[in-house]
Amino acid sequence: MAEIHFIEEMKRIGRLDKADQQLLLEMQPAIEQHASEIVNAFYAQLERFENLAAILHAEPGRVEKLKGHLTRWLVSLASKSYDETYYDLRYRIGKRHVEVGLEPRYVIAAMAFCRGITAQIIIETEYANDPRREARMIALNRAMDLDLNIMLQSYDDQRVQQFLEVTGFSKPLFEMLMTGG
Ligand code: HEM
Fold first, then answer.
1. Does the structural domain 6-179 have CATH classification 1.10.490.10?
2. Atom from ligand 1 closest to the CA of residue 113
3. Ligand 1 neighbour 66 (Cβ under 6 A)
4. FRET partner for 21 with CA separation of 20 to 30 A, picked from 11, 97, 122, 166?
């Protein structure tokens, strides 16, 4: 079987399909309209935890910069295509979190918060009486899961890379050890 790119495989397994994509594109104006409310709630939540607040304030102006990043990220969950370019952008976001020393569990927890607040602010307001309300939330979740998956792949790759550098092992040797081959 020909090798399937990561994002194609994850879309198939996670069932992010054309219908979801259409729903997400329709929702893009609502996401844009409510983005600042979601983004403010997101960082207010992170600020409640001392270790996360320390990362957020490690550089002057970082929170403002991050609010811009998160706004663009949210809006771009509704994408015209979830292709290799989309993958590369999400992979880079993951890599940036690795670089700033953020443990992956915080990204997972933050994504969970993001799902909840997005449901509350967009789905429960704009689409409260929409017959496709549930399908819209499922589509958003599928896109968020795809992103989380790609971001976590950055962590995994980075950790393997560090291990190879420290031990001097080759990648094939490492993979053989991991699979017990
Ligand atoms: C749903 C989870 C999250 C998403 C979608 C997200 C999104 C982003 C994006 C889009 C960037 C910019 C990446 C780039 O430069 O290309 C970024 C960077 C960053 N994020 Fe997150 N983030 C998440 C969770 C968190 C959490 C929990 C923290 C905890 C403090 C955090 C702290 C940071 C920091 C410090 C940077 C680097 C900012 C800089 O370059 O100065 N992120 N994030």
1. yes
2. 1
3. yes
4. 97
- Provide the pLDDT for residue 3: 61
Distance CA 105, CA 111 (A): 10
Q: What is the largest distance, in Å, between two alpha-carbon atoms of the chain?
A: 59
Structure token pair of residue 127:
């689409």
Q: What is the Cα–Cα distance from 2 to 14, expressed in whole angstroms?
A: 20
Sign of CA dihedral 38, 78, 12, 123: positive
> Closest Cα to atom 20, ligand 1: which residue?
97
The residue nearest atom 10 of ligand 1, judged by CA position, is: 69
Long-range contacts from 119-123, C-beta under 8 angstroms, 24+ separation:
121/34, 121/37, 121/38, 121/41, 122/27, 122/30, 122/31, 122/34, 122/38
Which is the closest atom of ligand 1 to the Cα of 93?
A: 13
Domain residue extents for the chain: 6-179
What is the pLDDT, as a whole number, of residue 2?
52
Residue numbers in the chain where pLDDT is lower than 50:
1
